[in-house]
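Quick start: what a row looks like.
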Amino acid sequence: MANKKPIRQDVRRVRGQARAEAAFPAAPSLAELPGDYLSTLEEIKQRIQKERLRIVVSANQAMVLLYWDLGRLILERQGQQGWGAKVIDRLAADLRVAFPGMKGFSPRNLLSMRSFAEAYPEAEMVKQVVSQLPWGHVVRLLQREKDPETRAWYARQAVAQGWSRSILELQMDRRAHERQGQAITNFPATLPPADSDMATQVFKDPYLFDFLGTADPRREREVEQALVEHIQHFLLELGAGFAFVGRQVPLEVGDQDFYVDLLFYHLKLRCYVIVELKAVPFDPAFVGQLNLYLSAADDLLRHPGDKPTIGLLLCRSKNKIVAEYALRDFNKPMGVAHWETLIVEKLPQEFADSLPTVEELETELGGGELE
């Protein structure tokens, strides 16, 4: 009798294997299949992935719209019945019992739903833009930005550029909406209206290179080297659409070689973008140099389908009026902006002077352990 149990197990295993093989017979080799099999397989996989993504996006939109609707109901009851914290706590507990498999019904999240409905009283804005964002993005927008127009700007940008939550927070910390489209340019005079409007919004002022840390580069090559070493951060600061082509790209004009500091291609503008870095204040002579580079790039690099190359001068500082005059009569599209390393540069001088230096901090911290 003791030997019968292993035998039964073996029999069950063999039967199970037979059923599996009957359901999924051995796949034939690729040599036995039609020539277009692999391309068809890839198309099927892409369709499945696309549909899975659509289902995830649709589920997220449905959830965000549900949260907005619940928040609107809570807001309504609070106004009519004077619902307080105790009612919210009880509601959260009852909802968790009623829907044990669902998350998101904590008292804190219910209050976020109420804030959501209060911040977005119009359903249309929620349906068109906000519902395309994950709930975590929506909560960050509510927590960190009170101005409706500014919040709407960040929501649109997050959807259009696919910002993660951390990138959204970073852009809000850097006040991206205040810098977007602020570079001094001659685009209205050198580009068609549609291209001019788009290009204007691509460039900003100032550019924040705080990812360079406490470094204070004194020469253009130092800035250039540091930016290339932090190319991911640099591309993030430049904005969506920029593809890095190269550094110190040669342009042969006549018998002379000229070198572009940084060369990019912008996927939406459909053109090359030359970025010239200066570790000194803006000088009108820089514009003539950049104009030469743009003319050479249009002849040497530009393809038939590309639009005119655009130039961006990034200087340590600038005089707005001087920059506007310098750009006025050039027919190549150019912009001028300044760059900063540390945000503390924006502090009033009386506060900046009172901050300890790096050396002072090191001396102070070296004297004992931190508590």
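That is the whole record. The first strand starts at residue 184 and ends at 185. The beta strands are 184-185, 207-208, 242-253, 256-266, 271-277, 310-315, 334-340.
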